[in-house]
Specification:
Radius of gyration: 22 Å
Order of helices and strands: HHEEEEEEEEEEHEEHHEEHEEEEHHE
Oligomer: single chain
Low-confidence stretches: none
CATH class of the largest domain: Alpha Beta
Helix content: 10-25%
Largest sheet: 9 strands, antiparallel
Distance between the termini: 54 Å
Shape: globular
Number of domains: 2
CATH topology of the largest domain: Naphthalene 1,2-dioxygenase Alpha Subunit, Chain A, domain 1
Strand content: 25-35%
Mean pLDDT: 91
Bound molecules: FE2/S2 (inorganic) cluster, fe (ii) ion
CATH superfamily of the largest domain: Naphthalene 1,2-dioxygenase Alpha Subunit, Chain A, domain 1
Length: 386
């Protein structure tokens, strides 16, 4: 373990905005750092999986790998959502293919057909001869699963704190947007980026780069200059911004009460892996999952009132376009993370949210004490007044 690098990571993660600089570039490519993050962050916190609406039928599942750990969330015949290990208890083959699917009845391993039911119980194995594998000892590990506003999260640790406690206070800001209206979900195909997961997250949460990287995509709608800070705790951060909105005043009036909040978006960052943009029209997100020290998976998705039938529409061309811009810049940064002499420098005011993310990382990796909850004047716009 590179103790000098870890100490520099810890020091950098603890800085407040006035003293914050780019982290040592090696934390974005070092394997020991990655392993520590996998254990202390991804095996130890609530991780966003998918929209609950995509698992509404019995048998529906979503399989994904979180920092090397294959898992699947399954809608069981008893109506429960369960998070199961997706690793066969015979010789470790991943059981279900990654992505969404539907179980016919049981989970059957594609290698030697050992079989498990939708609660993870071991059902049986063919051709075992005189050896009879013990049913009790060959079940699939089951993890905690909880939902928040139509989103499914799992936690791979034993007896985690409830998700609701993890997100304490967040719902207070979201009332105007009426998240329960959003029942239709979409998930775009997973993208594979040659970039450390933290680069993709940092890029996803800060608005500083919009005017340069997304000159023709995001910047005209959500300009860097009109982004602001709303509130943060150690566990989540809210930023926001004024949107250039082409709906007429009349259309807004017909949509019911039209508080000023509808002209703004909120960026909801639930570290480590969920970045959501909430507007009156829907909640759209990207999730970032680590693959190894230098690769991550990025999946875009969303919830809205209206069903999305295919990914052919202009809205998805737009999402694909700005994600392509993000991928190029993140992969470009990744190429310098093995530099021995080159290094980064100061963070600026629009990067406060990176400081929050580092405080989160510091608390999980090094047990550092995070800063207290803060709220800006902008928060008043979003606090629901009855
Ligand atoms: S590895 Fe799954 S049945 Fe053999
Ligand atoms: Fe971006």
């Amino acid at each position: 373990m590179n103790q000098i690098l870890l100490q520099a990571y810890k020091d950098g993660a603890g800085a407040s905005l006035s003293g914050a600089e780019s982290l040592p570039l090696a934390v974005y490519s070092d394997r020991d750092v990655f392993n520590q993050e996998a254990l202390s962050v991804f095996m130890n916190d609530w991780i966003f999986i998918c929209a609950e609406a995509k698992l509404s039928q019995v048998g529906n599942y979503f399989a994904i790998t979180i920092a090397g750990e294959p898992v699947a969330v399954v809608h069981g015949r008893d109506g429960q959502l369960r998070a199961l290990s997706n690793v066969c208890r015979h010789r470790g083959t991943p059981l279900l293919d990654e992505g969404f699917g539907s179980l016919s009845k049981h989970i059957v391993c594609p290698y030697h057909a050992w079989t498990f039911d939708d609660t993870g119980e071991f059902v049986g194995a063919p051709l075992t001869g005189a050896i009879k594998p013990d049913k009790e000892k060959h079940c699939l590990p089951v993890f905690s699963v909880e939902c928040w506003n139509g989103l499914v999260f799992i936690n791979l640790s034993q007896e985690p704190e409830p998700l609701s406690r993890r997100l304490t206070g967040l719902d207070d800001y979201l009332g105007w947007f009426g998240l329960s209206r959003f029942k239709e979900a979409y998930h775009m195909p997973a993208e594979h980026w040659q970039a450390n997961w933290k680069l993709a997250v940092e890029n996803g949460i800060e608005s500083y780069h919009l005017f340069k990287v997304h000159k023709e995509t995001l910047e005209p709608m959500t300009p860097s200059k009109q982004a602001y800070y709303v509130a943060d705790s150690a566990e989540w951060t809210l930023t926001g911004g004024l949107m250039k909105d082409d709906r007429s005043t009349l259309a807004k009036w017909f949509s019911g009460k039209h508080p000023d909040a509808y002209n703004h978006y909120l960026l909801i960052f639930l570290p480590p892996s969920f970045i959501g943009i909430l507007t009156y029209d829907g909640l759209h997100w990207i999730q970032v999952l680590p693959v190894d020290a230098e690769h991550c998976t990025v999946i875009a998705g969303g919830l809205s009132e209206h069903k999305v039938c295919s990914f052919e529409g202009a809205e998805f061309d737009f999402t694909r376009a700005f994600l392509a811009e993000d991928k190029v810049i993140c992969e470009r940064v990744q190429r310098a993370t093995r530099a021995r002499i080159g290094r980064g420098g100061k963070l600026v005011e629009l990067e406060q949210i990176l400081v929050d993310f580092r405080h989160y990382l510091g608390s999980r990796l090094f047990g550092s004490q995070p800063e207290d909850f803060r709220e800006t004047k902008e928060a008043e716009r979003f606090i629901r007044q009855e």
